[in-house]
Amino acid sequence: MPTRFALTLVVVGLPIGTVGTQLIVDRQVAALEATAEDSVRGVLQLLDSSVTNLVAAGDISGLHDVLGDVRRHEGVSDTFVIDEDGVLLADGTADEDRRFSRPELHREVVAGNASSPHEAFLFEHGAHLDTALPLMLGDERIGTVVVEYSLAEVQAEAVRAQRTGLALGFVFTGLSGLAVTLLAVRLTRALVRLTDFARVAAEDSLPRVLAAVREGRPVEPHLLSAPSEVGNGREARRLADALGTYGAVVNGMAGDLAQLLRETDARFASAFEGSAVGMAILDPADGRPVAVNDALCRLLGRDQEGLLAASLPDLVHAADRPAYDARLAALLAGSAPGAPVEIRYVRGDGEVVWTMASAAVQRDEDGAVRAVFLQLVDASARKRAESDLVRLAYHDVLTELPNRAYLLDTLERALRRARRTDGPMAVLLLDVDHFKVVNDSLGHDAGDILLREVAARLRAVVRDGDTVARFGGDEFVVVAESPCDEEGATALAQRIEDALSPSVVIDGRPVHVSASIGVAVSRGGRDARSLLRDADTAAYWAKSRGRARHELFDEELRRRADARLQTEQELRQALERDELVPYYQPVVSTTTGEVLGLEALVRWEHPTRGVLAPGAFIEVALETGLIVPLGRRVLELACRDLAVWDTLGGSRPWVSVNIDAQQLHLDGFPDDVARVLRDTGTDPDRIRLELTENAFLDLASVEAAHRLRALGVRLAVDDFGTGYSSLNYLRRLPVDVLKIDRSFLEDLSADPQADAVVRAIVELSHTMGLTVVAEGVETAEQLTALAVIGCDASQGFLIARPMPAASVPAHLGQAAVLPRPAYAGAGS
Q1: DSSP letter at 517?
Q2: Measured CA distances, 216 to 210, 265, 342 (Å)
Q3: What is the mean pLDDT of the segment spanning 269-286?
Q4: pLDDT score, position 21
Q5: What's the rounded Cα separation, in Å, for the pair 502 and 180?
Q6: What does the angle CA 781 – CA 783 – CA 786 come to, to the nearest 5 degrees?
Q7: In the chain, what are the helix, strand and coil shares in percent, each to the nearest 5?
Q8: Cα–Cα 20 to 30 A to 571, which of 74, 290, 429, 447?
Q9: pLDDT tens across 438-452, in order?
Q10: Which run of H or E residues covers position 623?
Q11: Torsion of the alpha carbons at 584, 590, 595 and 596, rounded to the nearest 10
């Protein structure tokens, strides 16, 4: 029976015992592997915050140290951190060649990491347990930490256990069934104890260890379950030794991780406190700071106690509070941090400081917000620079008034308000009279002083809410907000005239200042540029009517403006069609009546309006710059007419041509004159160029005059007495002829003072070697008086009216028919 029982046990019990032993060993191995997986997950969870902070901070050295410590743990075969692009950042080894490479990951790891981007992924293959943990900063993945755990030891233990079980089965085949039974019972009890210990370690000890690590406490022995008594069997003792080894590994790793966490916290604290950027950690519940650094205290002008006691959102400027609250609410709700935003804060001293604010949140494993990290960068200097740039873009540097761009924007807004309220508003355009004379005679610095003074006087006289702007050059614009009708606008213009009337003292010299003011009123029916054009038109008419006055734009001015525009267009066409031709007025000897020369006076042979005198178009030509091509054409035609007259024989008179200051100021004008003389074959001595005295007020004009005189042409000062020069000044100019303006001849025969003035001009001119010509002679008494005074030559309607070129030869070679009183006066 015992033999049969033993054989039965051998035949039946051996396979059963062997299979049972294998199942128990497999169950224990599976429990150990599961426990290893749990411990690895715990390690990864502990690595999460520390490695995430190091990656976010870019601390590769710290990351390398952490991974080096992990590598030293038993069972860890490889570990490394890659960024979101798969580039290896650190692996805890001294292998520099591997750093910044792209390590190959098992395809199941890559797939699992992609399918669960927020959770750790474990994959067992062969003798390895590969783990991958995404590193998250908010909702953004910034990298992945990979740990490869070797299962070789566990599998080796399993293989040894399987072999031992089989060996025991065969060895105990010859033993009694009781021995086999007792051994099975003892092994079963031992394995049950070991399984219970593993369960207790996983369910009780490991959470206590993890809690201690999170709280920064050391992992003490009492936190780990003591190994259970498993009997004296060899396999039982080996399993007990393996479990003890596991406990030692967990204890060592927990202690190392706790040390790493303390070091990471120390690094974070050092970076937090030493940062030049204002930083705070906020309680998400009420926004109160949990921690602040010194940079934030300096930025907000408060001490740490004050900031920690305050609610940081309450320090946000009232105008920015809605945007701040909306941004924070979106962040707490799970939105991405986004780009930094401009937020104003109120400092402790009440000053407002501009900042660039950025925020991020820290969430726990359940997604709940644990803390809000806030960074504030001082943006005050940048905002001041932006303000300066805006001011430069919209303000005039010289007068500090708004410039043209600002004016147009302001005027458009004023017109929109006028349209809404149906109330009148006005624009006043001021053109400073004779500013160029001041600039040319006293210098640009004096002109700048004058413009600044005008700006100051305008600011002082306008109403609150009105805008004064510099429109450009010597022009200013006042935008009078609604209500301002025609009466109010003209009253404002009068106040401006009164404010400008006192002289401005520049370098000890009083300078009279006035302005031609154009006024345009609108109820919103015009756009900004049209209204400015109307005011400019009114200013033009104020200037043409004598300056130092104001004109209100109305339909009559609009009609005149339209007519002026038509004149400009037709004048351009006239130049192309050769409709502008010179008419010639003889200049004769005051005593003999001999024709000495002719003055070329331009006439417009208009196809519908007949022959037009210069008064109908010359002002338009001056303002539009058409005077330059017009003057060149008259000079060319005069030279060609001289050549024609010479072919007819007889006397050879000179011809004088009027030159405007615009022509004299052109670069190369003397060269143009030389070219005309050369092309027409004209003797330079027979050409006189007449310029007004105001044309010589700047050095460039004087130099150009010297170059003209060097060509051989003669220069004449036209309309002497109407400008700002003196005979003493003319003495330094290369002029040959002085022409007395007609205004001096009006009362010449009846007013002794007028006679004395003309006599003085003639005598002083002769002293300087100048030839004197009186223009505008219309009466015999004037001619007689000029002859008595000794004026060299005369011209005017009394002598001859301007005539076309074809009529000139008949007047050459004969004396003009002068009234007898002239000869009587000459002989007396």
Answers
A1: E
A2: 10, 10, 38
A3: 72
A4: 60
A5: 131
A6: 110
A7: 55, 20, 25
A8: 429
A9: 877 778 888 888 888
A10: helix 618-624
A11: -90
